[in-house]
Design a protein that fits this description.
The protein has 20 helices and no strands. The protein is mainly alpha-helical. The radius of gyration is 23 Å and the shape is globular.
């Protein structure tokens, strides 16, 4: 059930009417029932998985808090986190370990298990890890009602692809709901509309051109270049579009979700990029992996090691393939190099505009490994613009005029992609201007998509 699909609008219309009609104290139960239906729409047979993960975390925290000593408490926390990760490891990494890690030594090929990856299992696991660890650290009181914790996990706007929520970011809002009269409906619809346009007008049409290039046996230079730049725009518009829609839906229900993107292609360095891209994952990796490993404490070599471990595991979290490991490793090497550079020279080496340009092209080149089926295909796509002919360049431009126009429009608009601007306009524009403008964007999105929507890229992770 995609946020951009007609069936979801029917689902949300019914859910929203119940949200308004039922007493406030019943809202957690409505979240549980509605979100279960939302999840089951994908595959009924896997609907037990988020319930199992929640039970592991909830009762693991209760078990941890009954510990007599701090060491026993820490040990129980570790055991609860390990148990929480077992379903993710089984579904996502069994075949990778069997075929790609151990297989080459024993000649093993094929798959060991033939099961689809449960939708959102990575995001649910990381969300509940934050719940367990924050309770252990004393940042959050773990003795909450079972229904509240279950609603925190299942809340459907963030269930499938984030944002990855800390307990402090949602549970207090569930326990003390915002009065419906204080909900900024216009701003919520405007934010949702922004996400809808990103997904249907930009991500899906550009994605078709990218898919065609990667499916081609021998793409030429212009086609490969469009695929490289196109995927950078596609994945941003796809994922940030999902997040915009999730934030807009939550706002309609009186819930504030944290922002997940902050114009990442305006970043002036890789560390800056990761402070702007998938912010809730970046901060999760920092707080629950990089810092516990030691962070930058202990000298330069340990810092380099911790960066590489964090980014390699971050890449592997995205997918059980060597391409994702390489993608994470490339970013790790880049961030480690910048950390090393800062140790020897404090002043910036380049003007900001050049730093932004170089950072964007580094990120765009690394995206090739994220998108490609194999490392060889990624390398081939990266070198093709320089080695293959451009004799058909004008014909290609004519044939790819629409995705090229979308790329140009995106780069013109990206510096202004900010929810604060959207909320400001929603407050200040007169209704007779604002609502026709929103209606225009909806009509444009429906027209371009022709009533259909591709699945979100991050549903695979």
């Amino acid at each position: 059930m995609l946020f951009s699909s007609p069936v979801f609008f029917l689902f949300f219309a019914g859910y929203f009417l119940l949200h308004l009609a039922l007493p406030v104290r019943w809202r957690p139960y409505l979240i549980i029932v509605g979100s279960t239906l939302f999840y089951a729409w994908w595959k009924v047979g896997f609907v037990w998985i988020p319930y199992l993960l929640m039970a592991i975390a909830f009762y693991g925290v209760l078990w941890m808090e009954r510990a007599g000593t701090s060491e026993t408490r820490r040990r129980r926390m570790v055991l609860a986190v390990i148990a929480l990760f077992l379903p993710l490891a089984f579904f996502k990494y069994t075949n990778f370990l069997y075929r790609d890690v151990i297989g080459p030594f024993f000649g093993w090929t094929g798959t060991l298990i033939d099961l689809p990856l449960p939708l959102g299992v990575s995001f649910v696991t990381f969300t509940l890890t934050a719940y367990i660890v924050d309770c252990w650290r004393g940042r959050f009181e773990g003795r909450r009602k079972l229904s509240t914790v279950l609603a925190y996990v299942l809340f459907f706007p963030h269930l499938i692809a984030g944002p990855i929520l800390r307990p402090i970011e949602l549970i207090p809002q569930l326990e003390h709901p915002r009065p419906q009269r204080r909900v900024a409906y216009t701003a919520a619809i405007a934010v949702f509309t922004l996400g809808l346009v990103k997904k249907l007008v930009f991500a899906d049409p550009i994605g078709e051109a990218v898919d065609a290039a990667y499916a081609a046996a021998a793409p030429d230079g212009p086609q490969a270049l469009l695929a490289l730049y196109g995927f950078a725009v596609q994945i941003y518009c796809d994922f940030s579009g999902y997040t915009d829609m999730a934030i807009g839906l939550a706002m309609l229900l009186g819930i504030r979700l944290p922002r997940n993107f902050a114009r990442p292609y305006m970043a002036a360095g890789l560390s800056d990029f990761w402070r702007r891209w998938h912010i809730t994952l970046s901060s999760w990796l920092r707080d629950y992996l990089y810092i516990p490993l030691g962070g930058s404490r202990g000298g330069m070599m340990k810092d380099m090691r911790n960066i590489m471990i964090t980014m390699l595991l971050g890449g592997l979290w995205h997918g059980a393939h060597w391409t994702f490991v390489i993608w994470g490793g490339v970013h790790g090497l880049g961030i480690a190099a910048m950390h090393l550079l800062r140790r020897f020279r404090r002043a910036p080496l380049l003007p900001r505009w050049l730093s932004v340009l170089l950072t964007f092209h580094f990120v765009t080149a690394a995206w090739a490994f994220f998108r490609a089926a194999t490392p060889a295909q990624a390398l081939h796509m990266l070198v093709t613009p320089f080695l293959c002919g451009w004799s058909g360049g004008m014909a290609f431009i004519t044939g790819a005029a629409f995705p090229l126009f979308l790329l140009a429009a995106f780069f013109m608009c990206h510096p202004f992609d900010d929810h604060r601007r959207i909320r400001f306009l929603a407050r200040r524009l007169r209704p007779e201007i604002l609502w026709p403008l929103i209606a225009f964007f909806w009509i444009m999105a429906i027209t371009v998509s022709q009533g259909s929507s591709a699945k979100f890229v991050y549903f695979d992770f």
